[in-house]
From TrEMBL:
Keywords: Membrane, Transmembrane, Transmembrane helix. This is Putative membrane protein. It comes from Pseudonocardia cypriaca. The chain crosses the membrane at residues 43-63, 69-91. InterPro entries: DUF1003.
Length: 169
């Protein structure tokens, strides 16, 4: 039996084959957009106009009233809207809570790093202050030299000798 050969290479992906890529967050993003729209003045204005037109058409048009006075169909539309709006708003709030939680964790980590850096710098500054405090200054050296000269009984040249002469007068 002859071997069936294909001209397809096994080391390369198939071209032309459409892959369906599913974004798991698309519904959550859509719900956030809807929830944002439901909280706008534009939505409230449009809804108010639609309700007013609905009621006006059903009260004025004696023939062809599709929703007579207690407006059961309008009530059903509001109930359906509320049934969908509440979970969408909750989903949007949950996503916002997740973003806030991540942001809070990042802020907390940044604050810890800043605190550690500040403590390190404070320790370094304290070490520098201690080191500078132990450094011999010019005045300290002059004073020590003056004392040494006084002990040896010899006058030191320059300003130290002048000071020694002033002290003896």
């Amino acid at each position: 039996m002859p071997e069936v050969t294909t001209h397809r290479r096994l080391d390369q992906p198939l071209l032309g084959r459409a892959r369906f890529e599913f974004d798991p967050d698309w519904f959550a993003r859509l719900s956030e957009r809807i929830a944002r729209f439901l909280g706008t003045g534009r939505f409230l204005a449009v809804q108010t106009v639609l309700v007013a037109v609905w009621i006006a058409l059903n009260l004025v048009a004696w023939s062809g009233q599709w929703d007579p006075y207690p407006f059961i169909l309008l009530n059903l539309a509001f109930s359906t809207q509320a049934a969908y709006a509440a979970p969408l708003i909750l989903l949007a709030q949950n996503r916002q809570d997740d973003r806030d939680r991540v942001s809070l964790e990042e802020d907390r980590a940044r604050a810890e790093r800043t605190k550690a850096d500040t403590e390190y710098l404070a320790r370094e500054l304290a070490a520098l202050r201690i080191a500078v405090g132990e450094v011999a200054t010019r005045d300290y050296l002059r004073g020590e030299l003056d004392k040494l000269c006084d002990r040896l009984g010899a006058a030191a040249p320059g300003p130290a000798a002048d000071r020694a002469q002033r002290r003896t007068r």
